[in-house]
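Q: I'm writing up a methods section and want to include an example of the input and output format. Could you take the sequence below and give the corresponding predicted structure tokens, formatted cleanly so I can copy it straight into the document?
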Amino acid sequence: MHSILIVDDEQSMREFLSILLEKEGYAVRTASNAREALQLIGQQIFSVIISDIKMPGMDGLQLLEEVRKISPDTLVLMITAFGSTDTAIEAMKKGALDYVIKPFKVDKIKIIIRNALKKIELEQENALLRRELFARDGLDRIIGKSPVMKSVFEIIQKTADSKSNVLITGESGTGKDLVAQAIHRLSRRKDHPFVAVNCGALPENLLESELFGYQRGAFTGAMENKKGLFEVADGGSIFLDEIGELNPAMQVKLLRVLQNQEFRRIGGTDDIQVDVRVIAASNQDFDRIVEEKRFREDLYYRLNVIPIEIPPLRKRKEDIPLLVNHFLKKVAPERSLTVTEDCMERLCRYEWKGNVRELENTIERAIVLSEGDRITTEHLPHHILEGQLFALPPKMDIPDDGIDFDRIISDMERDLLTQALAKAGGIKKEAARILNMSFRSFRYKLSKYEIGQREDNNKEKVSF
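A: Here is the clean output for your methods example:
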């Protein structure tokens, strides 16, 4: 619903316009003078302001100048008495949308306001189209046929239309932003804004003003009212990347938004209601940062209604050839490039710590260095050629009389856990990192196989 502010020192005119515009479906507020109007403008953003030019004290022209400073996106329609057209023309030069002369026809003022609001809506539609182009590829941009990625696709498709918040986890470079875009694009919110914010890239004081906006005069340099990104995303989705970087104060404020779907601008006194779906992402281990009291447990559960874990590239190596061919076409669509068999094998066996992002950069570099129509190992960087390879376990032949599957898997798991602890010098969190497991899963496995329990019990006995 568009909001309109009527400013006129005549009560009868305020009442007449209020009744007229409320019947048209607008939210209307009134002010008897310019000073009162400025107080209301400081509390909320109006789509249109209808103001008389001649008023005691601050007149309509002075009010217009203040509005242009405080809320430059608000359109101002001036009302003037017959014979004062020169003043009205001056108002147009200063940025007024239009003017009407008293006595005016009801239909005329309706048409002017409708045209003004159509202009606003057209600008919003253009912004939506730009955002839609940004996220247009959606699920099509996520490349993969491995079982783990098929599972991710299924979760996205099943939960896209839900109102529930989503928490996407995964290492850096795995494509968490693409998953967030896909969720939005497949939802009923797709025609509304998709707003992305990197919480770790903005200073703490700037992040609050970006998310929630501010009122004029809230701090030095706040020369006008500014909408926050939660307001911009109203009706759509907001993607909070690197959510684990939020400081405690911002965590409290975000929790309030998730609980009540409302917030206040910096320096504001009014609560602003929004309808926004929050999609958060992080490369951190939430079990650890919650346990260490660096992230609020209640906020974590509010965000983690629908968890989506994006696997690292080394755990879906069958997707590497697909990704390589995708990047060849993306970077050099005019060239018919292929990758030699030994080069592809090297790419598939390498442990990609930078995940898909590192692979894309590697392919782009190889394309630049290649002169023919083939990418070979000569075009790969030395750290891939000489670096550690991700080795597969040796192939095992099953004897005719069968095997004890559970025992073999248990022995293998126990051996890997023990090796990781040894490499980590007994530090469990480091051992979990080496095995690319969450700390909670690692502790569960240790308890399951009773690894280290005897030592821990002995330590406890000594301490007592």
